[in-house]
Amino acid sequence: MRTLTLAALSSVAALTLFANEAAAEPRIGAGLVYGTEIEEVGLQLNGYYGLDQVPGLRVGAEFAYYLVDDPVSFWTLDLNAQYRFIEPGPFGAYGIAGLDIARVSLDLDLGDFGGDASTSSTEIGLNLGIGAEYAVVPNVELFGEIKYVISDYDQAVLALGARYLFL
């Protein structure tokens, strides 16, 4: 597990360092997600950087925490590339491809029967999808995405939210 966490953090750091060096229109956002297999809503934070070397290409990360009932917790970390194939203008559409890291945990309080018990599982998969965005003002865009995660936690994920662009 430590190796997986270290690999994920290293990947995010490498993407961030590389992207900052050649960034165009960095953006951060937040939104709601819905997982079709776990049938739960979650909260998402994301950040993307456009790369000057390849027009239309952005790299970034998304973290989603799903609002499942206690004692279960479920979150995902996605390291994605987005390729915007409709531009310029206020409306854009893009393809999504990336790495998905999903973790589910179960923490039980056994009370008088022996304290606490916990277990967890982390799975790595791929995600593929499509998204659309609309600039409501020059620095704010609304977005909607649908992607399919291919892993032991296969599911479609729907996302809606807003992003702030640092122009």
What's the end-to-end separation, in Å?
Answer: 38 Å
Largest sheet, described in full?
A: 8 strands, antiparallel, barrel
Strand line-up in the sheet with most strands: 1-2-3-4-5-6-7-8
The number of E-state strands comes to 8
Rg, rounded, reads: 17 Å
CATH class: Mainly Beta
CATH architecture: Beta Barrel
* Derived structural class: mainly beta
The total domain count is 1
- Give the overall form: elongated
Helix content: 10-25%
The mean pLDDT is 86
Low-confidence stretches: 3-10, 12-23
Tally of contiguous helical segments: 1
How are helices and strands ordered from N to C? HEEEEEEEE
CATH domain fold name: Porin
Beta-strand residue fraction: over 45%
Key structural traits:
167 residues, Porin, eight-stranded antiparallel beta barrel, elongated, disordered N terminus
Summarize the structure.
The chain has 167 residues and is mainly beta.
